[in-house]
């Protein structure tokens, strides 16, 4: 018996991706690059974002609403393209969801553990993500002899969303935030926020060429690819390029920011409104 949207030619149901705003579009873009035959339904909860400064129990509620909304859209898999949302989800939450939900923390941690030569790994993220201890728990769960050095970088998100990724102030902010990681001699740094891939140039410059940067967006896309292959849920591509983008906030503002993350991929694509609470 086949699930809705699943045919002998592949599972054509879309992949759901959600974030508190536009940062998760780095995950959506990585999925589009790695899985060009798949459709994406992206939900940006811009009316209630950013999630980083919010209480994790509140974020858990928002996450549950959006996952159930995506399930009603008949997606085959949801990706929590938000480190704070991933940190807020418990194993009980995931088990109770009506569809599989992939987070961004575990894939990045697995990649960092593989990449480090010295066992000293850094992670940078929002205040909420770093304060949750989710990365510490994920590293501990691997059983690897890794020392994790965590650093909250709250200004990075506002700078990226303002389109500022290379100027002198950005460099100064990056030097200040990253100094503890340099002092700890980490050889690998996890970009623990989906906005941060847009700062790769600055981060690489400040940390130096000997430091490996691990993008949670790219590693999550690889994890989703593996899951779809292992479960026989890849699409045959018949409906590719029909991506949908939904915003709980003002669609025009969302589109303006989204263009910084997706560029021409968003051309002529309407942003659908999603009133807060409609996801429940």
Key attributes of the depicted protein:
280 residues, alpha/beta, Rossmann fold, 2 domains, 6-stranded parallel β-sheet, 4-stranded parallel β-sheet
Walk me through the structure.
This protein has 280 residues and is of the alpha/beta class. The chain has 2 domains: 14-104 and 219-273, Rossmann fold, CATH 3.40.50.1860; 105-216, Rossmann fold. It is built from 12 helices and 12 strands. The chain has helices at residues 25-34, 56-72, 83-88, 91-96, 105-115, 127-132, 134-142, 155-161, 168-183, 200-207, 216-230, 251-262; strands at residues 6-7, 10-11, 15-19, 40-44, 77-80, 101-102, 120-125, 147-152, 188-191, 212-215, 244-247, 271-273. A 6-stranded parallel sheet has the order 6-5-3-4-11-12, with helices on both faces. A 4-stranded parallel sheet has the order 8-7-9-10, sandwiched between helices. Strand 3, helix 1 and strand 4 (40-44) form a beta-alpha-beta unit. Helix 1 crosses helix 11 (216-230), helix 5 packs across helix 7 (134-142) and helix 9 (168-183) packs across helix 10. It is globular and about 50 Å long. It starts with 5 loop residues before the first strand and ends in a 7-residue tail after the last strand.
Mind sketching the topology for me?
Elements: E1 6-7, E2 10-11, E3 15-19, H1 25-34, E4 40-44, H2 56-72, E5 77-80, H3 83-88, H4 91-96, E6 101-102, H5 105-115, E7 120-125, H6 127-132, H7 134-142, E8 147-152, H8 155-161, H9 168-183, E9 188-191, H10 200-207, E10 212-215, H11 216-230, E11 244-247, H12 251-262, E12 271-273
Parallel strand pairs: 3-4, 3-5, 4-11, 5-6, 7-8, 7-9, 9-10, 11-12
Antiparallel strand pairs: 1-2
């Amino acid at each position: 018996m086949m699930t809705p949207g699943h045919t002998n030619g592949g599972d054509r149901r879309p992949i759901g991706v959600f974030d508190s705003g536009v940062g998760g579009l780095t995950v959506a873009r990585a999925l589009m690059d790695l899985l060009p035959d798949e459709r994406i339904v992206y939900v940006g909860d811009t009316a209630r974002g950013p999630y980083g400064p919010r209480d994790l129990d509140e974020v858990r509620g928002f996450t549950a609403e959006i996952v159930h909304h995506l399930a009603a859209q008949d997606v085959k898999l949801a990706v929590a393209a938000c480190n704070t949302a991933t940190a807020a989800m418990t194993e009980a939450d995931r088990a109770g969801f009506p569809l599989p939900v992939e987070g961004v923390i575990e894939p990045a941690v697995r990649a960092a553990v593989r990449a480090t030569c010295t066992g000293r790994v850094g992670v940078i993220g929002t205040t909420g993500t770093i304060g949750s201890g989710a990365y510490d728990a994920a590293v501990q769960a691997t059983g690897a002899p890794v020392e994790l050095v965590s650093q909250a970088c709250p200004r990075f998100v506002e700078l990226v969303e303002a389109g500022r990724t290379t100027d002198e102030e950005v460099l100064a902010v990056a030097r200040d935030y990253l100094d503890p990681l340099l002092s700890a001699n980490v050889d690998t740094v996890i970009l623990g926020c989906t906005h941060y891939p847009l700062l790769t140039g600055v981060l690489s410059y400040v940390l130096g060429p000997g430091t490996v940067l691990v993008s949670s967006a790219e590693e999550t896309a690889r994890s989703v690819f593996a899951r779809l292959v292992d479960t026989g849920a890849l699409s045959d591509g018949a409906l590719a390029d029909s991506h949908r983008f939904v915003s709980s906030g003002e669609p025009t503002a969302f589109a303006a920011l989204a263009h910084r993350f997706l560029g021409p991929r968003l051309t002529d694509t309407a942003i659908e409104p999603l009133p807060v609470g409609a996801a429940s």
